[in-house]
Amino acid sequence: MLQCMSLRIALLGLLTVSGPSSGYDLAKKFEKSVAHVWQAGHSQIYPELAKMTADGLLAVGAEGARGRKIYSVTPDGQAELRRWLLDHSPSTTTRSETALQSFLVPLLEPDEAVTVLRRMKTSAQAHLAELEELRAARNAIADPAGRWGMFGAYALDLGIRQTRGVMEWADDSIADVERRSGTA
Amino acid sequence: MLQCMSLRIALLGLLTVSGPSSGYDLAKKFEKSVAHVWQAGHSQIYPELAKMTADGLLAVGAEGARGRKIYSVTPDGQAELRRWLLDHSPSTTTRSETALQSFLVPLLEPDEAVTVLRRMKTSAQAHLAELEELRAARNAIADPAGRWGMFGAYALDLGIRQTRGVMEWADDSIADVERRSGTA
DNA sequence: GGTTGACATGTCACTCCTTACATGTCACCT
DNA sequence: AGGTGACATGTAAGGAGTGACATGTCAACC
């Protein structure tokens, strides 16, 4: 089993917090939460749930209306999740189109580079607004004292900091490009 | 052509800066530079170079010793790279194991969560040291006034900021977990 | 009764990426 | 002459991920 695991883990975590759920519900919740850190569509989720069931990490309860299958986490599944969190040092393999653009941007003329950097800043700004709205909604509704009250909260905080970092970086890089082209 | 493109673009950029190079040389340079933002092994690079040649983005010069093929960027290749940088808004699809761990960490007991967060901080620290050494080496050697002097420099700066951000986040999150478990 | 649209689950084809395997060249050492 | 090891280029098998397609249920509305 040298596979990536991450989708499995994400689903185990989500199912732990949600309690027994159907694939459809999981896919919807996934989209609104875990997808910020690990993307997957229903066409990947349904087969993975089936495989996880076959591997004993999940159990299928009664099938509800419209053929809904209700999954829940087995003890093996809990153990798998715990083990991954405690023992697995995450692989650092990056693959970010934004970072690639930032890498290559010096290949452009200064004014073009500034345009690209400004676009990056704008989209970071939009992303930041989205994340801060999410946090505001959390603070208004969620019960942070509950058993899983902080589920996703640290990741949200991290995302906000990283996005702010991108904005600051873009500002400084724009200034740097302009300084260099001014004195050239 | 709804493909990802990113590997193509990375190779075009690297080849633009390196000047005509063999696949082997590109793979080595790739590993030391672009791989920080987009990973790929030689088994992916060789076929991609062949495809890019077939698509007219690259041209093969004389074959050197030991069957070396010397690739160079064609005008079509330059245009492709420019177009991607100027017109392509990078997809925001995240997929980070670190972020996934940060997402799920509240599922653990407080002391376990602290352990995981400390590990994340340590590895961020190591990564930061690596990046700062890279920057020091750049500053000692590189000629930032040269045509491509800043190639990769903005990405390196971004990486350093992001990694510092992770460390700060880890510190604050550890403090938060400890505060919550103390008052619970 | 029929249409619409949200609910619900899946498959298929294709691209992307990783690991391991396979092949052959050339310089240098003994 | 033979061995070693860096150089150099590839292929193959399989897992991961994407987008489009396919199928069927059920409630509500007209």
Summarize the structure.
Two copies of one chain form a homodimer. Chain A has 184 residues and is mainly alpha-helical. Helix content of chain A is 65%, strand content 7%.
- CA radius of gyration of chain A is 21 Å
Total helical elements of chain A: 7
Oligomer state equals homodimer
User: Biggest interface and its residues per chain?
Assistant: A-B, 64 and 64 residues
What overall geometry of chain A do the principal axes of the alpha carbons give? Answer: elongated
Largest sheet of chain A: 3 strands, antiparallel
Total number of beta strands of chain A: 3
Question: How far is the N terminus from the C terminus of chain A?
Answer: 55 Å
Q: Helix/strand-derived class of chain A?
A: mainly alpha
What brief labels describe this structure?
homodimer; 184 residues; mainly alpha; Arc Repressor Mutant, subunit A; DNA-binding
